[in-house]
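Worked Example 4.2. Consider the chain below.
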Amino acid sequence: MKRSSLALLALTLLAVAGTSISSHGQSQNQAPRPARSRAEETLDTWNAIGNKLHAMAQDFPEDKYDYKLQKDQRTFALNLLHATALDYVVIRSISGSNLGPDFGEGDNPSRDAFKTKADVVKFVQQAIADGANVIQQQGDPGLDKTIKWGSRLVHVSYLWTFAIEHSAEHYGQLVVYYRANNLVPPDSRR
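Applying the procedure from the previous section yields the following structure tokens:
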């Protein structure tokens, strides 16, 4: 390479680097936007994982709803039903009401109660909406309340985090079911 070409390349790189450093410095000097309320942040996270599960419930082929990788695992549908039922256990504990449909005791509803894909999709969608309504109604003060959970008292914020994390675990399991069937999960199609 000729000296003039090297000099031109060096000047170009310095100009690009200078522009990048300059714009980075400007964003650091700007004041950050104020934090949203804790309830708004909790609601966003609740809706984010809920909407992923709802999209899967709608998208996965109904003829594969009873698919499972191994004999002692939950089926695709039973994973959704379990995650949603646990959400309702949490929602009911926090709200002090009996929101949602009757699916029996515990957090493992039978497929007999949710026979079709449409039944499962509706159950998942309803839980997302019911949870979101409770978060919005109770706001930040609701997150600071304590309630009995098992043998101890916990903050409501802990229970929302627990439910969100539990749903995310099942989301990961359902991604595996998609991949095992040579399907691409809705969230991966973006």
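The longest strand covers residues 146-149. Residues 6-14 have pLDDT under 50 and may be disordered. Compare this with Example 4.1 before moving on.
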